Amino acid sequence: MTTNILRFDPNGVNLMSDPDYLSDSQRTDGVVPGIAVSALHNKLFYQTSAMAAALGQALSDYGYTISDADYAGIVTAISNQIQQGKIRAVTSGPDTILAADRNNVVTYTSGSSIAVTLPQATATGDFGYAFSVTLINEGSGVVTVTPTTSTIDGAASLTLSANQSITIFSNNTNYFTARGRANPITRNVTASAAASCPFALGTGPATLVYGWSKVNTDNRNQFLQFSSDGGSNYLAANYRYSSTGRNDGGTGTGGSSTSAAGILLNSDTTMGSDTGEYMGLLGIIFPLGTTSTLKAGAVGVCITQTTAGVVIVNVWGGIYTGTAANMNYARLVDTAGGNVTSNLTIQDL
Fold first, then answer.
1. 3-class SS shares of the chain: helix, strand, coil, % to 5
2. What's this model's pTM, rounded to 2 decimal places?
């Protein structure tokens, strides 16, 4: 950026020496009526302008445009730099990143999803070069950060799951990030009877899911569905899957679909609420962002034993091919869209 705050007499012509300036009575006691001592006043303006110009240049180097015609802008620039290290705590949404958040920390502690607007990165103003902010999601709800016009790491938005943090930088046009998180982030999710089992996906390349689940109504399968709005709505169409399995008698089970309501996990339709029909589950989910041909995928394996004692091992995989993008939640449901009992561990990879 630029500054028009300049040094007075930068060549140091006709300046009072430092010892004379130190002892001069008009410096210590103030000027008196009469003829001004030019060397004394040159020294005064030389020193004060040096400090003012240095401050202006430093603020300019931090990305501000400094002008003596913009007193309020100078105050804002100085205040923003002085306020570094402050924490702004947000307990509910929506939220907008502020100019005062520059080089500071914003924490989110909500149990619900929070939408965060990041103003456009510009070459002038408060969100240019040297603007940075650290966001920390200390709550259980997903935090979705969406820049106005600009992109962030080349995408339209990004999400922070529980216990994830991110530092965002501007390059005058778009935003880029340095990401931080526990390695791995692990959380447990459960679902009781008559409920689905929703869980947030991480912002990394994949999410690992393992544990057990069972449907609570006879003759229903389990499906995996995705959400792109923080779990408010789940997509129940435009899935493709392939499921291949065997039971301990050597009989094959499985199936496939090119337009399903979810990704099929267990292919035996005789499963249900009987005691012992719990399904062990291990899967990896890939939220693929805005890829044109598919927006999310998952692969995994399930194992279960029916009440008749038949052991079934099922390998499955599938993708979502609809128009929704940037998946940030998933859930397990039965054929009717709920009604499962689950206990899963989620790790963000």
1. 15, 40, 45
2. 0.52
Q: What domain range includes position 324? A: 185-348
pLDDT value of residue 301: 93
Cα 87 from Cα 89, distance rounded (Å):
6
Looking at the fold, whether 341 and 253 belong to one and the same domain comes out as yes
Provide φ and ψ at 219, rounded to 5°.
65, 40
- The answer to whether 241 touches 260, Cβ cutoff 8 Å, is yes
Distance, CA of 81 to CA of 28 (rounded, Å) = 32
b/e per residue, 79-96, with b = 16+ CB within 10 A? ebeeeeeeeeebeebebe
CA distances from 170 to 102, 128, 179, 312 (A): 11, 6, 15, 53
Position 268 confidence tier, pLDDT thresholds 50, 70, 90: low
d(CA 307, CA 305): 7
Q: Which CATH number goes with the domain that contains 120?
A: 2.60.120.1230
CB-side neighbour CA atoms (13 Å) of 113: 18
Q: What angle, rounded to 10 degrees, do the helices at 38-61 and 71-82 form?
A: 60
Last residue of a domain, one of 181, 206, 221: 181
- Give the tens place of pLDDT for each residue, 204-229: 788 999 999 988 888 788 899 999 88
For a pLDDT cut of 90, what percent of the chain falls above it?
Answer: 40
- Residue 96 near residue 31 (C-beta atoms within 8 A): no
Burial of 28 (0-12, 13-18, 19+ CB in 10 A): exposed
How do residues 35-89 score in pLDDT, each as one tens digit? 889 999 999 999 999 999 999 998 888 778 899 999 998 888 887 777 666 789 9
